[in-house]
């Protein structure tokens, strides 16, 4: 493999990895507080693309305004999901929360088929994202550059919120001990709702960027990206935000490099991602940056 092709794959891998990282953070934030794997997260990701699609198609909104509104609506959807499906079961056994998450996922997917139809729709990509930048033998589309830059900006903003604000302090306190947090006058319900909102907003950003990169949307489009983002979160250490970011970039780079070095295996790129999950669970179940935390029962 020549140097130019290697650098081309690095650029593509960083772009894909940044999208995985954005989605993975939603998983890891919710798990860090509730010890819940929110399997509906990929479907929240899917909804954001339809919010943009119909905002442009029906309401004739400028694409940038439709993107902003979609992020807000998706964050609200995530908070509403927490309020309806998860909060009433907070003191129930963990298996009940897990079953509820799977049920919400199936509901959103099939509601999407009923409301939006199961026929894939073409996602309008602004001309700004259709151009190609050429650096000698390396060709990089503007959507790859924009995806990487926007992802880094939002990831850094999240780190600031979590580690430099009172809301972030409340999130970290609840992740350690919910009951003690209540005694310290932390509004647990509000903080958890905000966590779902932030995680869903990041999923919306990832969903919009994903639709710009692969301009076709359908109700089941969130399944594979959602599962891969879950793998990224596990690889980095579920419950660890920097770990989710690292896992996303590792998974994106690994996928692209696999196809670049061994194109005959390109049809197995999804299977390879699940192989990584199995190996991590076998040899380092806490993830690369995760800590061994005793599960509360």
Question: In words, what does this structure look like?
Answer:
The chain has a domain of about 200 residues. The chain has about 300 residues and is mainly α. It is globular. The protein is about 70% helix and about 5% strand.
Please state how the strands of the largest beta sheet are arranged side by side.
1-4
Fraction of residues in helices?
over 70%
How much is the radius of gyration in Å?
19 Å
Give start-end ranges of low-pLDDT stretches: none
Number of H- or I-type helical stretches: 11
Query: Beta-strand level of the residues, as a percent range?
Result: under 5%
The string of secondary-structure elements, in order, is HHHHEEEHHHHEHHH
**How many extended strands?**
4
State the shape: globular
Mean pLDDT: 88
Give the tags.
4% strand, mainly alpha, 297 residues, two-stranded antiparallel sheet, single chain
Task: Please render the helix and strand layout as text.
Elements: H1 3-34, H2 41-57, H3 63-86, H4 94-116, E1 121-122, E2 132-135, E3 138-141, H5 142-164, H6 166-176, H7 178-183, H8 188-213, E4 216-217, H9 223-236, H10 241-261, H11 269-283
Antiparallel strand pairs: 1-4, 2-3
Helix pairs in contact: 1-5, 1-8, 1-9, 1-10, 2-3, 2-4, 2-8, 2-9, 3-8, 5-6, 5-8, 6-8, 9-10, 9-11, 10-11
């Amino acid at each position: 493999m020549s140097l130019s092709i290697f650098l081309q794959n690095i650029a593509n891998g960083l772009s894909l990895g940044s999208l995985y990282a954005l989605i993975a953070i939603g998983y890891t934030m919710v798990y860090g507080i509730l010890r819940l794997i929110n399997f509906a997260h990929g479907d929240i990701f899917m909804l954001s693309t339809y919010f943009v699609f119909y905002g442009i198609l029906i309401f004739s909104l400028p694409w940038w305004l439709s993107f902003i509104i979609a992020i807000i609506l998706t964050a609200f959807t995530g908070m509403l999901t927490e309020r309806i499906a998860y909060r009433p079961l907070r003191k129930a056994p963990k298996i009940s929360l897990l079953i509820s998450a799977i049920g919400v996922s199936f509901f959103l997917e099939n509601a999407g088929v009923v409301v939006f139809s199961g026929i894939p729709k073409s996602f309008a990509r602004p001309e700004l994202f259709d151009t190609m930048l050429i650096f000698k033998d390396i060709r990089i589309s503007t959507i790859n550059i924009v995806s990487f830059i926007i992802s880094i900006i939002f990831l850094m903003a999240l780190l600031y919120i979590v580690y430099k604000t009172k809301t972030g302090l409340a999130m970290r306190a609840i992740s350690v001990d919910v009951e003690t947090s209540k005694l310290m006058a932390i509004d647990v319900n509000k903080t958890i709702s905000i966590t779902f909102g932030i995680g869903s907003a990041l999923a919306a950003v990832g969903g919009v960027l994903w639709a710009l990169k692969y301009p076709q949307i359908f109700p089941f489009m969130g399944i594979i990206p959602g599962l891969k983002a879950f793998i990224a979160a596990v690889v980095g250490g579920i419950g660890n935000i920097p770990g989710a970011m690292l896992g996303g970039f590792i998974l994106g780079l690994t996928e692209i490099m696999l196809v670049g070095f061994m194109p005959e295996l390109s049809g197995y790129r999804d299977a390879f991602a699940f192989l990584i999950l199995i190996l991590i669970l076998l040899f380092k179940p806490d993830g690369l940056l995760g800590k061994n935390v005793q599960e509360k029962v």
